[in-house]
Write a structure and sequence with these properties.
This protein is of the alpha/beta class and about 280 residues long. The protein is about 35% helix and about 10% strand. Strands 2-1-3-4-5 form a five-stranded mixed sheet, with helices on one face.
């Protein structure tokens, strides 16, 4: 796992404060946890701070720590551990997260990364000239069946081609990201089969079923009698499967002889007899 550090002091704001709406939300979130367990709200509070400012600043980490009565280092550990927290400024209109895990890679994720390098910046976590766009490569986003895909903020855009991603980036750059429909970018619903459903379809009306039966009867098709199969009944002349032979439980003398030949005692529950010594 790569080392994650806070952004340089030159881009860090001096202070942070939740706006009125988010402050009320933060207070209600903290109250959901039992007394003495308020620190469990650290992740949702950091996420709300990121949604408000676009990224997690040093001032936001310290503010959340003060709200929860936590040492600054503890909140810093959480923010730097989870890659969902952006520790540097990202695009104000779109931060494109390209999934590069195996299914997406096999389906064209490398072409999507080339688009991001061409349309946004040559390196990840780098703002474009206007500061409106940025990108990064991430691990699995959970839409493998619709690979390849990207996530922009909280929305996923799936079944992408390089050309379609270029169009989406252009729309976000123009401030029209809300007009882009999330989800599959081809003609299918969510992760349903391409071309439509093949199972669990609406059953045929009874009239059509009757017509099909009538046509089969008119064709003179006769049912074929198939004899029962004996495939599961092995035929063998081996003594092991011969039911007429006695088992070791009933043929004790034979079992004892066999045991003696193998160098074992017939009855292991009794101590072995000592061999007689000739004098």
């Amino acid at each position: 796992m790569s080392v994650r550090r806070l952004a340089e002091d030159t881009v860090q704001p001096a202070t942070f404060a939740f706006n009125k709406e988010n402050a009320a939300w933060a207070k209600a979130t903290i109250n959901k946890y039992p007394k003495g367990r308020e620190q469990s709200a650290v992740i949702p509070l950091l996420m709300r701070a990121q949604e408000q400012d676009g990224w997690v600043t040093k001032a936001a980490i310290e503010s959340v720590a003060d709200m929860l009565g936590m040492p600054y280092i503890r909140v810093l550990e959480v923010a730097t551990f989870y890659t969902q927290f952006q520790l540097k400024p990202v695009g104000s209109r779109a931060h494109v997260q390209v999934c590069g895990t195996t299914p997406c890679m096999l389906r064209g994720a490398e072409d999507l990364i080339k688009v991001c390098k061409k349309k946004i910046a040559a390196e990840p976590f780098t703002l474009n000239e206007g500061g409106t766009l940025s990108w990064e490569e991430v691990e699995c986003q959970g839409a493998c069946v619709n690979a390849p895909m990207v996530m922009i903020f909280k929305d996923t855009f799936e079944d992408l081609t390089a050309e379609r991603l270029e169009e989406i980036i252009d729309q976000f750059e123009a401030g029209k990201g809300a007009e882009v429909k999330p989800g599959p970018q081809i003609d299918r619903i969510y992760s349903a089969p391409i071309g439509g459903l093949t199972t669990l379809q609406v059953p045929q009306p009874e009239e059509k079923k009757s017509a099909v039966r009538a046509s089969k009867s008119a064709g003179g098709d006769k049912a074929v009698s198939v004899p029962p199969s004996n495939a599961a009944k092995p035929k063998t002349a081996s003594d092991v499967t011969n039911p007429t032979l006695k088992t070791p439980a009933t043929a004790k003398e034979a079992s004892a002889r066999n045991a003696k030949i193998e160098g074992e005692t017939a009855d292991k529950s009794k101590p072995a007899k000592k061999p007689r010594v000739k004098r």
